[in-house]
Amino acid sequence: MQLLTPEQMGQADQMAAASGIDSHRLMMKAGEAVSAAVLRRFPAAVRMVVLCGPGNNGGDGYIAAKALFEAGCNVSIYHFGDLANLKGDVAQAFNACPVKPQPLAAYAPKANDVVVDALFGAGLTRSLDPAVQSLILNLRKAGSNVVAVDLPSGISGGTGAALGTAVTASHTITFMRPKPGHFLLPGREHCGTLETFDIGIPQRILTSVAGNTYLNEPSLWKAHLPATSIQSHKFKRGHLTVFSGGHGTTGAARLSATAGLKAGAGLVTLATPSNACTEATAHLTAIMLREINNVRELSHWLEDKRLSAFVLGPGFGIGEKARDYTNLLAGNPVVLDADGITSFAESPDRLFYSLSKHPTTFVLTPHEGEFARLFPDIHSDKSLGKLEKARAAASRSNAVVLYKGADTVITAPDGRAAINANAPPWLATAGSGDVLSGIIGSLLAQEMPPFEAACAGAWLHGAAGQNAGEGLSAEDLPNGLPKYSQIS
Ligand SMILES: NC(=O)C1=CN([C@@H]2O[C@H](COP(=O)(O)OP(=O)(O)OC[C@H]3O[C@@H](n4cnc5c(N)ncnc54)[C@H](O)[C@@H]3O)[C@@H](O)[C@H]2O)[C@@H](O)CC1
Ligand SMILES: Nc1ncnc2c1ncn2[C@@H]1O[C@H](COP(=O)(O)OP(=O)(O)O)[C@@H](O)[C@H]1O
Ligand SMILES: [K+]
């Protein structure tokens, strides 16, 4: 599913008008869709309260109020801003509305009210007025049900950031295409259940304005998923190498390797320093073991051209050895995670220089702390949302960047970006990231391109979390992976 920024949506709106589509008709459809959703969700509501702002979002509100009124509901409208300043479609919607609005300050929220939030949508550019913010706090205190039009007021459609206090809705009705702010945090938590309604802007216009930001769904990468064929043999399904730390620190790499095998790699080898071989052997069966202690031994191992992908970082240890291995692996499909990333904290440019000499084959999987170590200036830039930060990081590093969190974002150096939204909160458990690196490594080993492998990996990890259920530990995740043939 392609996502549109508020700016792109505005552009689509203008193009629709320029091509002769009646903009008031679009507003009518939007407002009527809101009214229908409210009636469907709250058929027994005692009082409907529509809060209308000064722009087109407010216009949708006046249309919704009219439709609710005509459906026999008890409707009140409260407005923000000077009614004398209403223009164009909003003024027309206001004039046609049989319910006369009162000023916002007169509204005292009640628990049973069903509130339609049509204060601000895509046009929000700055923090809400203090009076609006205090009303939002009162709504929250009263526990009123809120249905947001397009976006909960106070949430940025582009970044999901809350510009001051923002409305928390149980439902949000948006139009044509969701925006990144519906899925990025904290926006996602403010939206409740999201419905996307088609108000009739033609597909050709949406396609012409859309960039390359997507919700991370199987349609984005399913065609690249490894297919199992009767003629397959284990080398055809790829050989993944996971580098392990030394004695006492092999757990993370073993988790990653186990996930790699379960995610379909034909062969998985744990590359282990000599002092950890006994420990690793005691825990492994299907996963193979190879002693690798230094760059010379790694170079020798890399002469086997059937090795298809590598995971470096989980439990590996921070330092020169990680940097040397990474440099040697540049140009190969690699997931660089955890200690592999942190090893470049003092000298990120050394990593970027190494990666700049090859096509994109690396996937970097930082959580926020690791992201800040590798990209300190991008991380601290308050003008950027998570999507833009991850895009800037991918462009700088020439790697696919999977910026982890409850709203994981995956970006490629060519600008493609996907927001992952299927991860349950109980994935926040020790070792969960190690499993993710193994899944992505496995998909790389099975010849998935790096952006698609990272997107599929994040989604499969989320699905595994859902299947394993609340209370899971990271060991449960590989067994929760869905079967590829059943993904639709
Ligand atoms: N995109 C489309 O195709 C359609 C959009 N529609 C609606 O139009 C909305 C966007 O309309 P607008 O662009 O008029 O924007 P809004 O209605 O979200 O904002 C209105 C105005 O408020 C001002 N403003 C921004 N932040 C403010 C703040 N914190 N305090 C006070 N004023 C502030 C802005 O200058 C803007 O002109 C969408 O969210 C949607 O609800 C619908 O009417 C149907 C068609
Ligand atoms: N609240 C959350 N909801 C959903 N997923 C989460 C949440 N917090 C973390 N995750 C996911 O869990 C994984 C944790 O990885 P990481 O931070 O590397 O932990 P670890 O190093 O313990 O494995 C990441 O994939 C991340 O996206
Ligand atoms: K709104």
UniProtKB/TrEMBL annotation:
<dbReference type="InterPro" id="IPR036652">
    <property type="entry name" value="YjeF_N_dom_sf"/>
</dbReference>
<dbReference type="InterPro" id="IPR017953">
    <property type="entry name" value="Carbohydrate_kinase_pred_CS"/>
</dbReference>
<dbReference type="Pfam" id="PF01256">
    <property type="entry name" value="Carb_kinase"/>
</dbReference>
<feature type="binding site">
    <location>
        <position position="153"/>
    </location>
    <ligand>
        <name>K(+)</name>
    </ligand>
</feature>
<feature type="binding site">
    <location>
        <position position="367"/>
    </location>
    <ligand>
        <name>(6S)-NADPHX</name>
    </ligand>
</feature>
<feature type="binding site">
    <location>
        <begin position="56"/>
        <end position="60"/>
    </location>
    <ligand>
        <name>(6S)-NADPHX</name>
    </ligand>
</feature>
<keyword id="KW-0547">Nucleotide-binding</keyword>
<feature type="binding site">
    <location>
        <position position="434"/>
    </location>
    <ligand>
        <name>(6S)-NADPHX</name>
    </ligand>
</feature>
<feature type="binding site">
    <location>
        <position position="252"/>
    </location>
    <ligand>
        <name>(6S)-NADPHX</name>
    </ligand>
</feature>
<dbReference type="GO" id="GO:0052856">
    <property type="term" value="F:NAD(P)HX epimerase activity"/>
</dbReference>
<feature type="binding site">
    <location>
        <position position="433"/>
    </location>
    <ligand>
        <name>AMP</name>
    </ligand>
</feature>
<comment type="subunit">
    <text>Homotetramer.</text>
</comment>
<dbReference type="GO" id="GO:0046872">
    <property type="term" value="F:metal ion binding"/>
</dbReference>
<dbReference type="GO" id="GO:0005524">
    <property type="term" value="F:ATP binding"/>
</dbReference>
<dbReference type="Pfam" id="PF03853">
    <property type="entry name" value="YjeF_N"/>
</dbReference>
<feature type="binding site">
    <location>
        <position position="315"/>
    </location>
    <ligand>
        <name>(6S)-NADPHX</name>
    </ligand>
</feature>
<comment type="function">
    <text>Catalyzes the epimerization of the S- and R-forms of NAD(P)HX, a damaged form of NAD(P)H that is a result of enzymatic or heat-dependent hydration. This is a prerequisite for the S-specific NAD(P)H-hydrate dehydratase to allow the repair of both epimers of NAD(P)HX.</text>
</comment>
<comment type="function">
    <text>Bifunctional enzyme that catalyzes the epimerization of the S- and R-forms of NAD(P)HX and the dehydration of the S-form of NAD(P)HX at the expense of ADP, which is converted to AMP. This allows the repair of both epimers of NAD(P)HX, a damaged form of NAD(P)H that is a result of enzymatic or heat-dependent hydration.</text>
</comment>
<keyword id="KW-0067">ATP-binding</keyword>
<comment type="similarity">
    <text>Belongs to the NnrE/AIBP family.</text>
</comment>
<keyword id="KW-0520">NAD</keyword>
<keyword id="KW-0630">Potassium</keyword>
<feature type="binding site">
    <location>
        <begin position="404"/>
        <end position="408"/>
    </location>
    <ligand>
        <name>AMP</name>
    </ligand>
</feature>
<dbReference type="InterPro" id="IPR029056">
    <property type="entry name" value="Ribokinase-like"/>
</dbReference>
<dbReference type="InterPro" id="IPR004443">
    <property type="entry name" value="YjeF_N_dom"/>
</dbReference>
<protein>
    <recommendedName>
        <fullName>Bifunctional NAD(P)H-hydrate repair enzyme</fullName>
        <ecNumber>4.2.1.136</ecNumber>
        <ecNumber>5.1.99.6</ecNumber>
    </recommendedName>
</protein>
<feature type="domain" description="YjeF C-terminal">
    <location>
        <begin position="217"/>
        <end position="488"/>
    </location>
</feature>
<feature type="binding site">
    <location>
        <position position="117"/>
    </location>
    <ligand>
        <name>K(+)</name>
    </ligand>
</feature>
<keyword id="KW-0456">Lyase</keyword>
<dbReference type="InterPro" id="IPR000631">
    <property type="entry name" value="CARKD"/>
</dbReference>
<keyword id="KW-0479">Metal-binding</keyword>
<feature type="binding site">
    <location>
        <position position="57"/>
    </location>
    <ligand>
        <name>K(+)</name>
    </ligand>
</feature>
<keyword id="KW-0521">NADP</keyword>
<feature type="domain" description="YjeF N-terminal">
    <location>
        <begin position="9"/>
        <end position="207"/>
    </location>
</feature>
<dbReference type="InterPro" id="IPR030677">
    <property type="entry name" value="Nnr"/>
</dbReference>
<dbReference type="GO" id="GO:0110051">
    <property type="term" value="P:metabolite repair"/>
</dbReference>
<keyword id="KW-0413">Isomerase</keyword>
<feature type="binding site">
    <location>
        <begin position="121"/>
        <end position="127"/>
    </location>
    <ligand>
        <name>(6S)-NADPHX</name>
    </ligand>
</feature>
<keyword id="KW-0511">Multifunctional enzyme</keyword>
<comment type="similarity">
    <text>Belongs to the NnrD/CARKD family.</text>
</comment>
<dbReference type="GO" id="GO:0052855">
    <property type="term" value="F:ADP-dependent NAD(P)H-hydrate dehydratase activity"/>
</dbReference>
<dbReference type="GO" id="GO:0046496">
    <property type="term" value="P:nicotinamide nucleotide metabolic process"/>
</dbReference>
